[in-house]
Structure formats: C-alpha cells, structure tokens
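Q: Could you fold this chain for me?
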Amino acid sequence: MQVYKVGGAVRDRLLGLPVTDVDRVVVGATTEEMLAKGFRPVGADFPVFLHPKTGEEYALARTERKSGRGYGGFTFYASPEVTLEEDLIRRDLTINAMAEDDQLNLTDPYHGQRDLEARILRHVSPAFAEDPLRVLRVARFAARYAGLGFTVADETMDLMRQLSESGELQALTAERSWKEISRALMEDHPQVFIQVLRDCGALKELMPEVDALFGVPQPETHHPEIDTGLHTLSVLEQSALHKQPLTVRWACLLHDLGKGLTPEEEWPRHIAHEHTGLKLIKAVNERFKVPKDCQELALLVGQYHTHGHRALELKASTLLELLQSFDIYRRPQRFEEFISACEMDARGRKGLEQRSYPQADYLRGAAKAAREVAVQPLLEQGFKGPELGEALKRERLKALKAYKEAATA
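A: Sure. Below is the predicted structure, expressed as structure tokens.
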C-alpha cells in the first residue's frame, strides 16, 4: 500500500504557489484494508475515504471507461492491481497528472513538469475528449494561470473544439456547469475564461447570449473599444482587478446582453437595450440554476446600469424610484454591489480604466439621505397603513431634492 499526493497539490508546489487542497491516491490497497485502518468511506461513485485523524481525502487508484453521455457517463474500476500511471492517465491535464511521495520524489509519466516550465495547458490523453466538463476546466485553469503566462496547447484546443461541436456540452448538468463558471469568474483573469470558451466554440453552446455580443459595435464616443464583446471582457477584467464578489462579476458578464438583439440597421446605437436584455439575463440565470443573489443583481444591473451612469442628471423622483427598486432600506449591500458593477462598466472601456467615477459617491449619498428620513414623526402625526407609505415617500423625495441641490450646486 503506497500513498501519493496528486494533482493540484503537486502542481502548485512546483509553481511555488500556496497549496490549499491536498488529494491523495492509494495504490495497492483494497476497500477492506482501508476500512481496517479506520478510514471512513465517502465516495458514492468510486472508493474515496476520509483519514481517521486528519479528515483528508484518500482515493483508491482507479481506471475509468466511457459508458454514457456527459460528466457522469463513466464506469470506474478500482483494485490493488491499478498502477499509479494508470490512475494518472485518466486525468485532464499533464500538469495535473503528477504525483509525489512523502519524500517529494516525483512521478511524472506524462511530462507535466515540462509543460509547467513551458507554461502549457496540455491534455494527458485522447480520453480527454470523453468528458465535456474538461472544456470548462481547461478554460478555468487558463483564467487562473494567465498571469503566469500559461496558454492552451493547440492540440488541446482542437479537442475542445471537437467537444463543443459534438453536442456533448449539452449533457452537462446545470449544477456542474455553474460550479465551474462561478469558480472561473473568481479567478484573477476571468475574462480569459470567457475568451478561451469563445475560441473553442463552447461559449456559443453554453452562453450564446454572451457570444452574440462579439462583433456588435457601440458608439466610439462612449466606447473607444467599439466591440461590445471586448467591452464585456474588459468589464470582467476590471471586476477582478477591483476584487469584486461573485454577484458583481456575474452581473458584469451579463449587463449588456440586450445589445446582442439590436437590429444591425440601428448600430452602433442600442436604444432600450437595458429592457430588451432582461429576458436574456433571465434565460441564462435559469439555464445554470444561478444562486438567487447573483440572479437578482444581474437583472437589476442589466435594467438600471445606465441610470447609474446618469445618476447626477436624474430627477429626484427618478432617483427615488431607483432606490426603491433596490430596497435600500432592508438590503443596503445589494445597492452597494450595483454601484460597484456600474463603476466596473465605466472603467471597462479602452483608455478609461483609471477615470474617476463620481456617480458612486453621489449614489451612496442619495441612499444615505433617503434612509435618514425618520418614520416616527409621521407616526406621531397619525399616518398609518398606505397613507404612512405615501407620506414617507413624500418626505424621502423632499430629502432627495435637497440632497441633489446641495450636491450639484
């Protein structure tokens, strides 16, 4: 019975990066032997065990065979006869197919260390094309390691194109897809994830609404980069540079979907794209069963981001409607995330990345003015029920008018 660290723990140690998750493979052992040593079984599909003291995962060496469609369409075989090399060959990338023992002796049958040094993401074997989830995984690794100069090998990109064209991506469950998408969006270079998916044809299959933005022009006066797809990538890039949470990054990705529906004869203008895009944002949210907080912010940013940009020009009544739409009194954080998404949108324009965004502080000040309107005096005046709501609205409008006059004087 031999135990090896495998995958990310070996890869990141060799890259000089912090090692967070440690996966271990056990060669030459049976399930009975693991149970006798006190390991607890947790794997539903194949033998995975938790260490009796540390709680870390140990998996028996195994082989796999394609038996159906999608990520789950595999039959696994684990036995003491399965070698370390046989276990490693079923992995996705060479840089993830290395193992080391406790003395840091490296087992690298598929030249992962060479590809690490060359900064190449390369598939281990032709079996790569049997698992459609690997298209998303490779794009995610490209986003993670882009800052170190990693690129996808041409032959691996060819296999990803084949997978995209085969229809296999449609077999992925919403849950598995969202897990990869959400992790990729939180990497340092999430725009690389989208670009790689587009380069291999997967974006068109998974998110045709985003793919449709590429090649769609915008007015050069507002958007020096012109292309809506490139603008979306830049907004996503800014969201990562400014360490935004997942909710904001998801909203940044989807905020301009309506521009993909603008008839060509109306280009480069996109009148009412905020409203036409809502049905597309809803469709993408539903397709991947996106968490509720991400869904809600994406829809609100899609509908109101131009209000954010024009904040200083908005009438007090329109400003109040905007604040009410976000329920700023009970959910202040959501409005703060909206402001962040608007700022990322403004910065995601060629040559304007460092431009200040005074609308952010203006909107925060407006929200503060509206929140500070006290309810108690109105209760003391006898207002209640719907009348109280109307009176509160009048007082908030009055406060916003005063705020607007003082802030724009």
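A (continued): Residues 385-408 form the longest helix (24 residues).
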